[in-house]
Specification:
single chain, alpha+beta, 13 helices
């Protein structure tokens, strides 16, 4: 569910709360009405209506004095009951008619998105968030990147960037990440920065599928034909070499302190945002099914992982998207 969907759901909730408050105000106002009820409604301000909700009920002195004089009541209890019933029916029937006029599939989709919103709202942000499927987490990661893009469009002077360590390149060779790839392009186009590193052996670099993946990655930062900007950095590290470096070993030890990281570090893909952390594993052998994924928002846990020390030439090598891929060098021994 993207930011626009969340805003729509929140707006519906607010409208519902306002409607309930208005019902309460109408009932209280009718119960305390006097002969000057129409005049009171004309001059009553919004603050008076809200105060009626919390103000204790007091007997109307005007109504009591008129009853003492034997004058007829301004409204009979019968008409008051009819008016309240009509107002309640109108308030209930209007949203029901609006809801039933929508297509069934649209109602089902909105209900599903609203249920997701309620689930996220009830979840403690200090606990890891693990959706029922890896695809659901990928959709949320795409939403996060889209949200950052929206913030950059509203304020282009702020800095937004994130770091990615990909142990699995195979998913990029499928269509599963097309929407996420497009979100990456929009993020960079709006002024964001992405630092992505693939762990690839020298043998994998000769694989045509790997080269296609790297060329597609270069399109993220493409400004024009044959020209790239500085909003996207593509790196490559040899897993046989980087696994023995102190920075990688320290990152491995820190990663084992996170929830559900009982597997080896090289089984996970990681995305480090400024205030969130994403990692996934349990990939299928044929890469048709997304693996289990986890999102963490707890600052104490997020701060344990820092991918930035890996992005230096003494450990890995940057891939220039302005040069042909065949000029790639072998990693340092």
């Amino acid at each position: 569910m993207n930011g626009r969907d969340i805003i729509n759901v929140v707006w519906l909730v607010i409208v519902g709360i306002v409607v309930l408050c208005l019902v309460r105000v109408i009932i209280v106002a009718l119960r305390e009405s006097t002969g000057d009820f129409s005049a009171r409604l004309k001059f009553l301000r919004a603050i008076d209506f809200m105060l009626k909700i919390v103000r204790p009920k007091r007997p109307s002195t005007t109504l009591a004095s008129r009853n003492a004089k034997g004058g007829p009541p301004p409204f009979s209890h019968h008409w008051l009951a009819v008016l309240v019933a009509f107002a309640g029916l109108l308030i209930i029937a209007t949203p029901v008619c609006w809801w039933m006029s929508k297509p069934p599939l649209w109602r089902a989709l909105l209900t599903s998105e609203f249920n997701k919103f309620l689930t996220m709202a009830a979840h403690d942000p200090n606990r890891p968030w693990q959706p029922p499927s890896g695809r659901a987490t990928l959709d949320q990661i795409t939403t996060v990147v889209d949200t950052l893009s929206d913030k950059l469009r509203k304020n282009p002077y702020q800095t937004k960037e994130f770091w990615v360590l990909d142990h699995y390149w195979q998913y990029w060779n499928t269509q599963k990440l097309d929407e996420y790839l497009l979100a990456n392009k929009m993020f960079v186009a709006n002024g964001g920065k992405i630092h992505r590193m693939f762990l690839l052996t020298n043998e994998e670099l000769q694989n045509p599928e790997v080269r296609n993946v790297l060329q597609e990655q270069c399109s993220i930062g493409r400004l024009a034909s044959g020209q790239t900007g500085n909003g996207f950095e593509l790196w490559r590290a040899d897993p046989k070499v980087i696994s023995g470096r102190e920075e990688y070993e320290g990152l491995t030890r820190a990663f084992q302190q996170l929830p559900d990281t009982n597997k080896a570090f090289h089984d996970f893909d990681i995305i480090q945002f400024s205030d969130a952390l994403y990692y996934s594993s349990d990939f299928s052998p044929d890469y048709r099914v997304m693996g289990r994924s986890i999102l963490i928002f707890n600052p104490e846990l997020v701060s344990k992982i820092d991918l930035r020390p890996l992005f230096k030439k003494s450990i890995a090598e940057p891939i220039s998207c302005d040069q042909p891929l065949p000029v790639l060098r072998a990693a340092r021994k």
